[in-house]
């Protein structure tokens, strides 16, 4: 049984400039006193082919966590576009909220992100190097991909987690997960 359940993630400004910070209002319930803090990470995944291109946008420890319903806002800078290969800025990408306890992931929530030019002339003739100030991102906030993992909350090092779904599977729309 999970001692922490993510109740809601509200993406503040799901449509924004590519360079705008990400803001997520996270509501969760803790049903029992925890020995350690929770860690929330926001990761930008620009390619399903290699996790070496992933960028950790923010990592935040929350604690001590009181029993009951808790809420906070996680704010993260936009990804470093210089670390995104070629025209991948304008491809489909993913942001992933990872929720950990004692370095073990218990929930992972992924959102598809579509980035494109808002100017029709740039859409028709995109420049060789992306004009980031003219790129808008849209997060598909209504259709998160949620994966729950079973951990031993007393000693998370004792449990084996089920194999993590790869980003390739997530981007291909694998149906082994619950849609929230």
Keywords:
single chain; 180 residues; mainly beta; eight-stranded antiparallel β-sheet; three-stranded antiparallel β-sheet; 6% helix; disordered C terminus
Structure write-up:
The structure is a single chain. This protein is 6% helix and 45% strand. With 180 residues, it is mainly β. Strands 2, 4, 5, 7, 8, 9, 10 and 11 form an 8-stranded antiparallel beta sheet that branches. The longest helix has 6 residues, at 167-172. It is elongated, with a radius of gyration of 17 Å. The relative contact order is 0.21. Mean pLDDT is 87; it is low at 174-180.
Which residue ranges are poorly predicted, with pLDDT under 50 across at least 5 consecutive positions? 174-180
Distance between the termini: 19 Å
- The average pLDDT score comes to 87
Strand-pairing-aware structural class: mainly beta
Strand content: over 45%
DSSP helical segment count: 2
Radius of gyration: 17 Å
In one word, what is the shape?
Answer: elongated
- Give the SSE order as H and E letters: EEEEEEEEHEEHE
Q: How many extended strands?
A: 11
- Helix percent reads under 10%
- Main β-sheet: number of strands, strand sense, barrel status? 8 strands, antiparallel
Summarize the structure.
By secondary structure, the chain is mainly beta. The protein has helices spanning 120-124, 167-172; strands spanning 4-12, 15-17, 22-30, 38-45, 55-62, 68-76, 92-101, 104-117, 135-139, 145-148, 178-179. Strand 7 and strand 8 form a beta hairpin.
Sequence-ordered SSE layout with sheet pairings:
Elements lengths: L3 E9 L2 E3 L4 E9 L7 E8 L9 E8 L5 E9 L15 E10 L2 E14 L2 H5 L10 E5 L5 E4 L18 H6 L5 E2 L1
Antiparallel strand pairs: 1-3, 2-9, 3-6, 4-5, 4-7, 7-8, 8-9, 8-10, 10-11
């Amino acid at each position: 049984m999970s001692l922490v359940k993510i109740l809601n993630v509200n993406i503040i400004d799901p449509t924004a400039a590519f360079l705008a910070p990400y803001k997520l209002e996270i509501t969760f319930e803790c049903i029992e006193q925890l020995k350690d803090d929770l860690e929330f990470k926001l990761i930008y995944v620009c390619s399903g082919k290699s996790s070496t291109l992933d960028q950790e946008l923010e990592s935040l420890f929350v604690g001590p966590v009181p029993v009951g319903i808790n809420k906070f806002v996680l704010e993260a800078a936009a990804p470093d576009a210089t670390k995104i290969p070629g025209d991948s800025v304008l491809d489909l990408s993913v942001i992933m909220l990872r929720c950990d306890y004692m370095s073990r992931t218990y929930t992972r929530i992924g959102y598809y992100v579509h980035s494109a030019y808002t100017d029709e002339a740039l859409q028709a003739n995109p420049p060789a190097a992306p004009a980031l100030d003219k790129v808008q991102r849209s997060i598909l906030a209504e259709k998160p991909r949620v994966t729950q993992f079973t951990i031993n909350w007393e000693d998370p090092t004792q449990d084996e987690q089920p194999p993590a779904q790869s980003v390739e599977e997530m981007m291909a729309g694998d149906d082994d997960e619950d849609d929230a």
